[in-house]
Write a structure and sequence with these properties.
The complex is a heterodimer of chains A (485) and B (354). By secondary structure, chain A is α/β, with parallel strands linked by helices. Chain A has 17 helices and 20 strands. The chains are: A alpha/beta (485), B alpha/beta (354).
């Protein structure tokens, strides 16, 4: 019946216009309030993962460039930004928030071009949250005495920040907004494959007349990041990315006295009890693993479903997944966009192969993939055991591993059986069971009867090897403040 | 050295007095246990293990009016405290502990890497139960520790004096402060979530609540120069919030730590919540710093020369690390700064709808 209906009401293409974005052929580093050529003389190309067409040339910052940026940040911290009252700092952040709202569509399209995620997500999730983050933190700038760290807490100094490619501008907002509100200055390195929205953010800093050196953007790959977090002039390091790189950074920072916060990988469990509202749970499972192609550190990548409900839930889940639309990220009806890079696609393929080889059963909807670009179909593995790699390792792609359980105790034990501890989900109509489960899950964010919700007022961050420190809310300010005592 | 076969938890029984116990009752307890054979251990040789300490109370001393020659004091064997029991080191090793004046005080167990592993296992096993206690109950148990210490003031004061050569007034002040520190932290378990938690006003129909939870197993290098007050000051905040601890006591002055273990063993603190190792910090700390089942590392007592290397080891499993501060004033108001490093913030979302 539904297939027939699809035939009658086929979607027409509904692409968002690219015209709103004015790409420059080449972007330079943003240091001390100006775009400047990299002394390294090196460049890299960033491409659209949906068609592999180059978008722009971007500078690669070398050690000298990083040093210039840190020096500029230090000068701004000790000069204009450090001397400014919280109320005035806050006004700059409000200004930035307003410009972000005004240029939201442009940034949403740009983000989709550079990242490959669907326009409906950049437009309805990333950009609104980016602006909200600046608004939220703008208001903190003159209220830090009330942040729970005693009277007159001080900023840490110069923050070195390195962010990933999965939410390029949102991760920038999570890093820069609290740092500036607390009175720090920053040098931020966006991800190698998604530098463009950070460079447009640099333009917004100019437009807001933010004093030079308060925000510096250095583009590049791993070497640039290493130079930044290892720079002796950085007082604080903040990193979001893989657990492997997080360990390396923690080692680098050890013994230096630098402050460190890490937001790393995850292998989130999404627990569905047999009394759950199954259709709602299906929506939550889909948003948990297929939102942003599963390129989400807090993805619900392990579905733990109570045995008695498994058959019915999986049937409904498959039916729902068959309705997902994969394709042109700029199309407003697209649910699943492109995988961000060839490298990431290979990682997903490798783990999916391992899942099949280790005996789990793979299922994907009948889903034609575009010929150009990097794509992976939504995939569900059943018959997964806890020993399988697809149950233990972060895939960071649209791949769901399904395990079953019989008792609440078993659900909690399996959910916690991972070195990660970033997120988890609980689906039940019984309040006491929800609270019982949430209390026992060793994870920093628990979504009950919902999933993948974010808000600037809500602290986000992990337990165990998912990192330490929180971003968002009053708790997130702690990373950027020194106790008065 | 030869080690006699293990005796069943003698010191736990030895510490069995309640807060009203007199010194007499406390040191009469060991006599109930047939530990006399242990008097033949090396520390007894020469008979000068505990120097004369005229003019102040001494739990090992005989009553002043008794002729000294008629009563041989019963000495304590200082052992490890692991999983609620008092084992010797599995290695069979011990090391001599000397007082501030260089006199031999006793032998302490020289814990091995295996003992450290056993302590981590004990702390891990105790974690969910301890974290799952009500905050009120944890507070009561910490207060009980204060009560138990109060009953042993004289013994602690003697050990602090032996270790640091401080005068009686100073020793008394340090012991008082240590007892009061338990009282201070006894009040925190049922308040910390109110101070550090939050109801978050998110932009949507969601209930959103953040609250602190314990990190897990925390390895603590206790400050070497503050063997009692420093020790209590680093252990109490870690367990008050629901963590469990593996503590490396002051290598130089481990005896107050073992006596503190006897206090904890009789304070209704579940076995394994606090595990105390005596021995070489240089031998034990690297192992604890890299141990995959340790979640947090308090380097307060770390040697400045090795702290960076320990922090690097801890990075492999992304442990929460409290770096050595240096120059701590253990008599100052501790605030929350020793609790927050070993707390995680958990945020729970739930939709609101009719």
């Amino acid at each position: 019946m539904e297939r027939q209906a699809d035939g009658i009401f086929e979607y027409a293409p509904a692409p968002e216009s690219r015209a709103v974005v004015r790409l420059r052929p080449a972007y330079e580093l943003f240091i001390d309030g100006e775009f400047v050529p990299a002394k390294s003389g090196e460049h890299m190309t960033t491409a659209n993962p949906a068609d592999e067409e180059p978008l722009a040339q971007v500078s690669v910052a070398g050690e000298t460039d990083v040093d210039r940026a840190v020096t500029a940040a230090r000068r701004a911290f000790e000069g204009v930004w450090g001397a400014m009252s919280g109320a005035e700092r806050g006004k700059y952040l409000f200004r930035i928030a307003r410009i972000l709202q005004e240029r939201a569509r442009e940034l949403a399209v740009l983000e989709t071009l550079d990242n490959g995620k669907p326009i409906k997500e950049t437009r309805d999730v990333d950009l609104p949250l980016v602006a909200a983050h600046f608004f939220y933190h703008a208001g903190w700038a003159d209220k830090l005495d009330h942040a729970g760290m005693g009277p007159a807490p001080r900023p840490v100094g110069v923050a070195a920040q390195v962010i990933p490619w999965n939410f390029p501008l949102l991760m920038l907002a999570w890093k820069i907004a609290p740092a500036l509100a607390a009175g720090n200055t920053v040098v931020l390195k966006p991800a190698e494959t998604t530098p463009l929205s950070a460079l447009v953010f640099a333009e917004i800093c100019q437009e807001a007349e933010l004093p030079p050196g308060v925000v510096n953007i250095v583009t590049g790959a791993g070497e640039t990041g290493r130079a930044l977090v290892g720079h002796p002039g950085a007082d604080k390091v903040a990193f979001t990315g893989s657990t492997a790189v997080g360990r390396e950074i923690a080692r680098t920072v050890a013994g230096t006295g630098k402050r460190l916060t890490l937001e790393l990988g995850g292998k989130g469990a999404n627990i569905v009890y047999d009394d759950a509202a199954l259709d709602q749970a299906v929506e939550g499972i889909v948003s948990g693993i297929f939102f942003n192609q599963g390129h989400v550190c807090c993805a619900g990548s392990r579905l733990l479903v109570q045995e008695s409900a498994a058959e019915e839930l999986l049937a409904r889940l498959r039916a729902r997944i068959e309705r997902l639309r994969l394709g042109d990220p700029l199309d407003k009806n697209t649910d699943i966009g492109a995988i961000n890079s060839a490298e990431q696609l290979e990682r997903i393929r490798e783990l999916a192969r391992a899942g099949a080889e280790e005996g789990a059963e793979s299922w994907s909807p009948d889903c034609p993939l575009p010929e150009r670009g990097h794509w992976f179909p939504p995939t569900v593995f059943t018959g997964v055991t806890q020993a399988h790699r697809i149950a233990r390792e972060e895939i960071f792609g649209p791949v769901l591993s399904v395990l079953t359980f019989r008792t609440p105790e078993e659900a909690v034990a399996k959910a916690n059986n991972t070195p990660y501890g970033l997120s988890a989900g609980v689906w039940t109509e019984k309040g006491s069971r929800m609270l019982w489960t949430a209390e026992r899950l060793r994870a920093g964010v628990i979504w009950s009867n919902t999933f993948n919700k974010f808000d600037p007022a809500s602290p986000f961050g992990g337990y165990k090897e998912s990192g330490y420190g929180r971003e968002g809310g009053r708790h997130g300010l702690e990373a950027y403040l020194v106790h008065a005592a | 050295m030869s080690t006699p076969p293990e005796h069943p938890e003698p010191a736990r029984a030895a510490a069995g007095g309640d807060s009203a116990a007199t010194d007499d009752r406390q040191h009469s307890a060991p006599e109930l246990h047939a530990e006399a054979a242990e008097l033949a251990e090396p520390l007894g040789a020469g008979g000068a293990a505990r120097p004369d300490r005229p003019g102040r109370p001494d739990t090992s001393a005989v009553p002043a009016d008794a002729p000294a020659a008629e009563r041989i004091p019963v000495r304590k064997t200082y052992k490890l405290y692991v999983g609620g029991a008092f084992p010797r080191s599995e290695s069979g090793r011990c090391y001599p502990v000397t007082g501030s004046g260089g006199a031999h005080l006793a032998n302490a167990a020289l814990a091995s890497r295996k003992d450290a592993r056993d302590a981590v296992v004990a702390a891990r096993s105790a974690f969910s139960g301890w974290a799952g206690r009500t905050a009120y109950n944890r507070g009561q148990i910490l207060y009980r520790a204060a009560e138990m210490m109060e009953g042993r003031r004289a013994q602690f004061a003697a050990e602090v004096t032996d270790a640091d050569g401080v005068d009686a007034r100073r020793a008394d002040a340090l012991v008082s402060a240590a007892i009061d520190r338990w009282v201070y932290y006894a009040g925190w378990p049922d308040k910390i979530a109110q101070v550090l938690g939050a109801a978050n006003p998110v932009s949507g129909p969601y209930f959103n609540l953040s609250r602190p939870e314990p990190t897990g197993v925390v390895a603590i290098l206790a400050p070497p120069m503050a063997p009692l007050l420093g020790l209590v000051s680093v252990v109490a905040p870690v367990i008050a919030t629901g963590n469990t601890a593996v503590v490396v006591a002051s290598e130089r002055a481990p005896l107050p730590a073992v006596t503190l273990a006897e206090v904890l063993a009789t304070s209704d603190l579940p076995g394994g919540v606090v595990n105390i190792l005596t021995g070489r910090a240089g031998e034990l700390a690297p192992h604890l710093a890299s141990h995959a089942d340790v979640d947090g590392l308090d380097l307060t007592g770390a040697d400045p020369g090795t702290a960076a290397e320990l922090e690097r080891s801890a990075a492999q499993t992304l442990k929460r690390v409290l770096r050595p501060g240096g120059g701590e004033d253990w008599l100052a108001d501790p605030g929350t700064s020793r609790m927050t490093p070993f707390l995680e913030t958990k945020t729970v979302w739930h939709p609101i709808g009719a």
